[in-house]
Design brief:
The complex is a heterodimer of chains A (342) and B (270). Chain A is mainly alpha-helical. Chain A is 74% helix and 0% strand. The two termini of chain A are 14 Å apart. Chain B has 270 residues and is an alpha/beta fold. Chain B has a single domain, classed as 3-Layer(aba) Sandwich (Rossmann fold). Chain B is 34% helix and 26% strand. In chain B, the strands form 3 sheets. Chain B has a 6-stranded mixed β-sheet, sandwiched between helices. In chain B, strand 7, helix 6 and strand 8 form a beta-alpha-beta unit. In chain B, helix 4 packs across helix 5. The longest helix of chain B is centred in the C-terminal third of the chain and has 18 residues, at 177-194. The chains are: A mainly alpha (342), B alpha/beta (270). At the A-B interface, helix 10 and helix 11 of A face helix 2 of B.
């Protein structure tokens, strides 16, 4: 993989991100010219107030209070899920791993179901915002999966994987059990939450996700070398000087935080955590020093574009778009490669 | 690093167990700096466990393991990795690193989290590739290498660690004769020229006898015999430990040569 190709891929990612940003800010029920939308976007910056001079206050509000937070939220959700996917694939030494493998999604879904269905019945539940429930569910369940997978001071990845599947099914069953007691409106709410969306969220959600997404991505990037070594298996990673169990716990927690926070604010957005690291690995190779930042940008880009398509199709839930686009693309990738390698 | 008179690695009555199933039951073994030691023994004798005990990846449940006089448990993982490298049993690579990237991971114990590779790291990587005759493979993907090439790259990663001790788990398994010889000669050269301490686990008694200066025979988690190949590889001992009839004579280089006796050969003998 030549240095030039790597640089070209990164530049193309940045260019596409700028393009998608302009399109997203311009697209919606009240279309704006992309140039004006971009000028409004830049106008709050010091010294650039003049850029927004031709825009009406309504246009400014649409761009800065409605579309910009959605755009940022979409970016952060995608970035967090993709980096979480990178972490899981390295920790499980398996290119098919994704964040939900340790129960993040099913835990979040259980938390959200509790909040949506029991919220109306029990006072204690109703005051707490839904994202907090989903986040607690995601972290609680992945923590439980980790603890149940400990054997004599170690956490074998095979055991972690199977425990994740079992605990995940348990959570889904519990969520369904709660759901059958709900009324139609609550069931609809839960179903829509599970399809994932960034269309109705505002700055509050961005502020909730931002610290986790940035901190998580920074930790993942700082441990790029450890992640490379972990791809060789726990034992060889230890031979290379990695304190495997400590690093594994840290990075699992990091992945659970990233994915948990993303799911908590946006619901379940499928395939991003699986496909984006894959595509970046095909384009750039498996070295995490490049793969992690590239997946951060690529994940953000994919969700921005998916949210744009969702808006253009008339508020279709985001998670449906990512799966509709992601699954066939993934199948194409698997078929295109004659040899099964990553 | 090594002080005079100090063992490179030393196990004292080492006991290891998986799920209370003993794998090593009291192993005493002292390995001198610069030794080329072969570890042989039947399946399940504890050879791989012995490597894990010596590399500190499997904690002992009894006895002690010392690396240059200090207990393994007192080292940090990074410190161990600078003194001792392990070439794992051959398996095929999953992720498509280039050979050079794979070898460069051997520098992990010397580099901080966000520290870029330094010139001396790049030099160590090139030296390791050259020592394994793998410089021409550097830009190839490890997933596209042949078994012999991959094994050389795998050993080069451990060499890039610039450790004093190299533990190898069956480095010649699955290789044809030319590649077995190639790897063995490269290892012998490293041992002679760079004073690298080598511990080589092998199923191939003849290869071990030909290249190692000393052999250790493991059986049922204990050291059954140790010494130079001609003292250790005797017909009764091999028949007892492996449970198979053999004939031992002298090979062209003076080292013992072990021939497995088939039913047909036994009939012809009698």
């Amino acid at each position: 993989m030549s240095r030039w190709r790597k640089m070209a891929v990164m530049l193309a990612l940045l260019a596409l991100l700028i393009e998608a940003t302009a399109l997203s800010l311009a697209t919606g029920p009240a279309p704006l010219p992309a140039g004006r939308a971009l000028r409004i976007l830049l106008s709050p910056l010091p010294g650039l107030q003049d850029l927004g001079a031709d825009a009406s206050p309504t246009d400014r509000d649409i761009v800065l209070q409605v579309r910009l937070p959605r755009l940022l939220l979409g970016f952060l959700v995608g970035a967090a899920l993709a980096v979480a996917g990178v972490l899981m694939q390295a920790l499980f030494q398996n290119p098919m791993a994704e964040p939900s493998i340790i129960g993040v999604s099913s835990g979040a879904a259980l938390g959200a179901t509790i909040a949506l269905v029991l919220g109306q019945t029990y006072q204690a539940v109703s005051g707490v915002p839904l994202p907090l429930f989903a986040f607690t569910g995601a972290l609680g369940v992945s923590g439980l999966v980790y603890l149940l997978s400990r054997r004599g001071g170690r956490t074998p990845v095979g055991l972690l994987l199977l425990t994740g599947i079992a605990v995940g099914s348990l959570c889904s069953a519990l969520a369904s059990l709660i759901l059958v007691r709900g009324n139609n409106g609550q069931v609809t709410d839960v179903v829509f939450w599970m399809m994932g969306s960034v269309a109705y969220q505002g700055w509050g959600h961005v502020r909730m996700l931002l610290p986790y997404a940035l901190a998580g991505a920074c930790v993942a990037f700082a441990y790029s070398r450890d992640l490379n070594a972990l791809l060789l298996g726990d034992e060889q990673a230890a031979h290379l000087g990695i304190a495997v169990e400590r690093v594994k716990l840290l990075l699992l927690a990091c992945g659970a935080l990233l994915a948990g926070a993303a799911v908590a604010v946006a619901g379940i957005v499928g395939f991003v955590g699986l496909v984006v690291p894959h595509v970046m690995r095909l384009l750039l190779g498996p070295d995490h020093r490049l793969l992690t930042p590239a997946s951060f940008l690529g994940g953000g880009l994919v969700v921005i574009v998916a949210a744009l398509v969702a808006t253009m199709l008339g508020a279709v839930p985001l998670g449906i778009i990512t799966s509709l686009l992601g699954a066939p693309f993934f199948l194409y990738l698997l078929h295109r490669q004659g040899k099964y390698r990553f | 690093m090594p002080k005079p008179g100090e063992a490179a690695l030393e196990l004292r009555h080492a006991i290891c167990a998986y799920d209370r199933q003993p794998a090593l039951s009291g192993v005493d073994l002292r390995i001198e700096p610069g030794e080329f030691l072969g570890v042989i023994g039947p399946n399940g004798a504890g050879k791989s466990t012995l490597l894990r005990a010596m590399s500190g990846t499997l904690p002992l449940s009894g006895g002690e393991a010392r690396l240059y006089g200090r207990r393994l448990g007192e080292y940090r993982r990074r410190e161990i990795a600078r003194l001792l490298a392990v070439v794992p049993a051959p398996g095929m690579p999953v992720f498509a690193f280039t050979a050079r990237e794979h070898v460069a991971m051997g520098r992990t114990p010397y580099l901080g989290h966000l520290q870029p590779d330094r010139p001396q790291d790049a030099e160590a990587v090139e030296r390791a590739l050259a020592a394994m005759d793998a410089t021409h493979l550097a830009e190839r993907m490890v997933t596209e290498l042949s078994a012999g090439e991959w094994q050389r790259v795998s050993i080069a990663q451990s060499l890039a660690q610039e450790a004093h001790i190299l533990l190898l788990d069956e480095p010649t398994a699955f290789l044809d004769l030319r590649h077995q010889r190639e790897i063995s000669e490269l290892l012998a050269r490293l041992n002679a020229e760079q004073d690298l301490t080598l511990v080589w686990v092998s199923h191939d008694l003849n290869l071990a006898a030909e290249y190692c200066a000393r052999l250790v025979v493991l059986a049922e988690g204990r050291v059954r015999a140790t010494g130079p190949p001609e003292a250790v590889l005797t017909e009764p001992l091999i028949a007892e430990v492996y449970g198979a009839p053999v004939q031992v004579d002298q090979g062209p280089g003076g080292r013992p040569r072990v021939t497995l006796l088939s039913e047909r050969a036994l009939e012809a003998q009698s």
